[in-house]
């Protein structure tokens, strides 16, 4: 199993879909959106995120920065999924 799949599965076990769609790793504004009005995201529980980060890094013998990137992508995908679901409900 790829480490990215492990990250997603562990996130889904430890957090609800709503938490994943409305929270971020740090709680800070993304540098990609400086000056743009964007939603503020609360910080995910750092203990649970840290456990996932360390477990995956150790099991797959990779740097934690790769795990952080996988978590960020998974959270972005959760946001997109929630947004699509809301848009679909609005059109129905």
From TrEMBL:
Pfam families: BEN
Residue ranges of domain BEN in the record: 1-82
Domain of life: Eukaryota
Organism: Cryptolaemus montrouzieri
InterPro entries: BEN_domain
Protein name, as recorded: BEN domain-containing protein
């Amino acid at each position: 199993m790829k480490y990215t799949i492990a990250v997603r599965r562990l996130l889904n076990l430890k957090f609800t879909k709503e938490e994943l769609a409305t929270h971020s790793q740090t709680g800070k504004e993304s540098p990609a959106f400086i000056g743009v009005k964007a939603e503020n995201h609360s910080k995910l529980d750092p203990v649970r995120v840290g456990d996932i980060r360390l477990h995956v890094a150790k099991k797959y013998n990779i740097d934690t920065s790769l795990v952080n990137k996988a978590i960020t992508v998974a959270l972005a995908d959760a946001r997109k999924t929630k947004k699509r679901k809301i848009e679909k409900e609005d059109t129905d």
